[in-house]
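During the reporting period the student researcher (J.K.) took over the structure-prediction task from the postdoctoral fellow and processed the backlog of single-chain submissions. One of the processed entries is reproduced below for the supervisory committee.
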Amino acid sequence: MINKKYLVLPIIIFLIPMGKAVPKADKTNTGLRAGVSLLKHSAPTNKNPKVVDKVFKQKELKALIIDHHKEYVFGQSGDFSGHFKPYAEQIKIGIETYFRKVNQRGGVHGKKLRLVSVDDYSNSQKTEENIRLLHRYHEVDRFLGVMGTRGVHAVLDLIEHKKIAMLFPWGSSPKLRNPALSHFIGGPGLIKPQIDELVRYAIQELRLKKIALYHDDSDFGKQNATYARQALARYNVSPVISASYNRHTMNLRNPIKRLKKADPKVILCLATSTPTARMISTFFEEGHYGTVFLGIDSTLFVPHMLTLKGAQFSYSSPIPDPLFSMNKFAQDYRDDLQVFFPDEQPNILSFSYYIHAALTVHHMKNATEPITNEKLLPMFESMQNLELGGLQFTFNKETRSAYEYGITILPQSPKAAKIIQQEVLDKTVERKATAEEQKRKIDVKEKPKKTSEPKPGLLAGVFGKRKDN
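J.K. obtained the following structure tokens:
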């Protein structure tokens, strides 16, 4: 339940493909330029790139050295230099955060965990090439956190013929949710449940029915818009407008004009963060302060990108709130992030991949050497109410999802996020102080009492001579 003080009246819905590249905006578009002035330059990125393990360019893979006798290697292909760079970095940071903790404690069966990340510039052909090169020349047969549905489709033959295991890619489709696809394991990030919850929240909790849809013109965006109409129809509601824009030009002028004319109370944003933030900024700059904006999980960076005070935005999440949840998984994630990536802020994307890495490692530890995909994957499939880190995991064979968590709506205006984050940090500091105090008391209690000077010839050789302070 969202604190009402963080909400303003009206709402809007955006729909954009999660796994497709979005070119840079047309700076000649006056409607877009107006919104950009209210934005930070980009979504938050890792402030200290040296802390993150190297991201390879494809041409550098020839020099890649892997020792399979000493390390378990997972491959990853993602857009580390384009529009989706913030997403790629957070996926990598989530995985590496957990891997580093495990490696610090000795690894798995004496071997270190390693993530080999390769830049694909959001080009599905490059994604395919990266995966095939890693598999063919470096014998990498497990991939974790690969970005882009089209790129995964391009290596579907390797997955179907059980040559590689594709674990938790960022992107999905009905083809990949095939029950017979044994070497594919998906996460909880399905779009339809999020749309259902956003629609329910807008109509039943906010009691607003004047709702608009905003999406790009790709097949993925159109499919999301179609499903959103169906979800609204279950409440006898029709969208006041469904506005789309060209994903190649990113020209937002006409869709924004149409949305303003329809004057919706809610806009559902099934989009990525940049076009969503530009939309909201343009609305606010032109005086439309009464609209409520809701987005799917891929709009998570919007609160960080908006600099305008008062801009209210909430988004759906298929995992617990990484900032506010006191679930053990969330607490461990925040603590580990602080240790290994102290400049990074908790967010649902890196948290979800922290969970995915933890779940994968859990099964690896329970598998006997040598760990093969034929041993590992059935362990995912056999999960029934598996308790791990305060969460329960049950594998869904129909959707190939490793787990399904209830959708929550996170109130993420910049002000709200700051307040929530401070509360969590205060509680974390308090929890650590309490733990240290308890440890100190135990140490004091167990500390042996001082004994008199041992007599020469008895224990002197054990304790040595006492030194006066």
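The committee noted the following: Residues 94 and 450 are 48 Å apart (CA to CA).
J.K. will present the remaining backlog at the next meeting.
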